[in-house]
């Protein structure tokens, strides 16, 4: 959709809303549709090719409005999470439409998803231990609980541990900045020997610093053997798994209890939209379900509906699945795959430009849309380069530390980025690098 069509469609939507408001007194205040009405009206999978905007708007009136906002808000979310799960080729156990016990829910962020998973895992282990030893109190169990993640995990994992009031162990990553089985096993054995209770592991696929991937095929079996809840945080990288050539990065997901990524990061869905799946939805509802009289309704015990207020921390929810429906239909699966592939191609183009300049080095294998690079030399010279880049305000880079190295990161993440922008960014970086190195030589000469 170009800017001209965007203007036209925007005006059409204002007219749609205005017409709705003008005719609102002719609409029922409560829908006639029964729970489960929506799924038979929409396809089982996302379309491969784009649908027209006119067809989508027509379906809004025919399919959504008869059940707006309830049960359409809930039922479209369930279907869209199944659509997305199928695009990722998730195991059937994570889908709501099959015979499994799982399903998907839209959280506000990956931080929320990690916290929800940790709290559900905490409740589950406390109840399991109390069932075996009724004399144990929740407080005495919580005092011994330990969660684990790679030392490359996002800070939101540490925050989840703080909010959940449990210890969090940072497992040292290997030379590729990945969590491996040996390091996790060593930490588990040490903690169990000290009388502590391991219960929760976060594996990161596509770390924030350098887009590294924890080894699921090693970590997963250990979690299964030790009865540990395995949560996968793929906040950034998860979008790429809709492409067959990147799906192998998700191998081992079958060992997970919960999996999360952010369509609002790299799948063209506006913030906020964080997709989370669980194998057993009762693990979430068992931790969060409360039913005060003012929230009771006639269908809550029918088994026909999903009550998402029991799957999350907030009580209120927005109709976030509607924007997923629009995006998936306007682009089609192939359009979304092409978008991801273009960004990865642009990242490799930038990588090739860096490799042609002997002053620079690539610091991590480029897998998706992130390039980690630096000037060969001290951390100070790279910090000076970053300062000049961001002060110039033509492009913006966010750094990281990889072990003892200060590293610059270029992320391809805008819908409108083209090869010309990548080359412009590189020319700008090279020019500023020359100035930084000249200033360094001048300072050395003076000293």
From TrEMBL:
**Necessary cofactors:** pyridoxal 5'-phosphate
| Entry GO MF terms | aromatic-L-amino-acid decarboxylase activity; pyridoxal phosphate binding
Q: Which cellular component terms (GO) are annotated to the entry?
A: cytoplasm
Recorded hits in Pfam families, A to Z, give:
Pyridoxal_deC (PF00282)
The protein's matches in SUPFAM superfamilies, at most eight in alphabetical order, are given as: PLP-dependent transferases
Gene3D superfamilies recorded for this chain? Aspartate Aminotransferase, domain 1, Type I PLP-dependent aspartate aminotransferase-like (Major domain)
Q: What is its EC number?
A: 4.1.1.28
> What InterPro entries does the entry give?
Aromatic_deC, PyrdxlP-dep_de-COase, PyrdxlP-dep_Trfase, PyrdxlP-dep_Trfase_major, PyrdxlP-dep_Trfase_small, Pyridoxal-P_BS
Name its pathway: Catecholamine biosynthesis; dopamine biosynthesis; dopamine from L-tyrosine: step 2/2
**Keywords recorded for this protein, A-Z:** Acetylation, Catecholamine biosynthesis, Decarboxylase, Lyase, Pyridoxal phosphate
What is one process in the GO biological process aspect for this record?
serotonin biosynthetic process
Q: Which residues carry this modification: N6-(pyridoxal phosphate)lysine?
A: 265
**Record's family?**
Belongs to the group II decarboxylase family.
- Summarize subunit and interaction data from the UniProt record for this chain: Homodimer.
Return the protein name: Aromatic-L-amino-acid decarboxylase
What organism is the protein native to? Answer: Oryctolagus cuniculus (Rabbit)
């Amino acid at each position: 959709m170009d800017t001209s069509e965007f203007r036209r469609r925007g005006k059409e939507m204002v007219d749609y809303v205005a017409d709705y408001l003008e005719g609102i007194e002719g609409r029922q205040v409560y829908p006639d549709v029964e729970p489960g009405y929506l799924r038979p009206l929409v396809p089982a999978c996302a379309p491969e090719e784009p649908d027209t905007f006119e067809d989508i708007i027509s379906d809004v009136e025919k399919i959504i409005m008869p059940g707006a906002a309830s049960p359409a808000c809930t039922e479209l979310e369930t279907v869209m999470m199944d659509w997305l799960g199928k695009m990722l080729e998730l195991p059937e156990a994570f889908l709501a439409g099959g015979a499994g016990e799982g399903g998907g829910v839209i959280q506000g962020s990956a931080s929320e998803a990690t916290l929800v998973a940790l709290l559900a895992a905490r409740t589950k282990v406390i109840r399991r231990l109390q069932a075996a030893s009724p004399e144990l109190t929740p407080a005495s169990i919580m005092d011994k609980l330990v969660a684990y993640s790679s030392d490359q995990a996002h800070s939101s994992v540490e925050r989840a541990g703080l909010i959940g009031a449990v210890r969090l162990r940072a497992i040292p990553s290997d030379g590729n900045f990945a969590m491996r089985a040996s390091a996790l096993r060593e930490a588990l054995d040490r903690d169990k020997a000290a009388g502590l209770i391991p219960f929760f592991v976060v594996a990161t696929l596509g770390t924030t610093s350098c887009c590294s991937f924890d080894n699921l095929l090693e970590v997963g079996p250990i979690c299964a053997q030790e009865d540990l809840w395995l949560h996968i945080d793929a906040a950034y990288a998860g979008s790429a798994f809709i492409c067959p050539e990147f799906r192998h990065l998700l191998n081992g997901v079958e060992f997970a209890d919960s999996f999360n990524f952010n369509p609002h990061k790299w799948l063209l869905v506006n913030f906020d939209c964080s997709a989370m799946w669980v194998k057993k939805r009762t693990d979430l509802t068992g931790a969060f379900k409360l039913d005060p009289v003012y929230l009771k309704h006639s269908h809550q015990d029918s088994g026909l509906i999903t009550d998402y207020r029991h799957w999350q921390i907030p009580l209120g929810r927005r109709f976030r699945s509607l924007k997923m429906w629009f995006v998936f239909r306007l682009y089609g699966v192939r359009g979304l795959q092409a978008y991801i592939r273009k960004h990865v191609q642009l990242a490799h183009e930038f990588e090739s430009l860096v490799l042609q300049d002997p002053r620079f080095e690539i610091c991590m294998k480029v897998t998706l849309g992130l390039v980690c690079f630096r000037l060969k030399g001290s951390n100070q010279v790279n910090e000076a380069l970053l300062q000049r880049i961001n002060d110039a305000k033509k492009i913006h880079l966010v750094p990281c530390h990889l072990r003892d190295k200060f590293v610059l990161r270029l992320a391809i993440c805008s819908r409108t980025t083209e090869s010309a922008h990548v080359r412009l960014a590189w020319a700008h970086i090279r020019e500023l690098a020359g100035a930084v190195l000249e200033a360094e030589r001048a300072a050395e000469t003076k000293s």
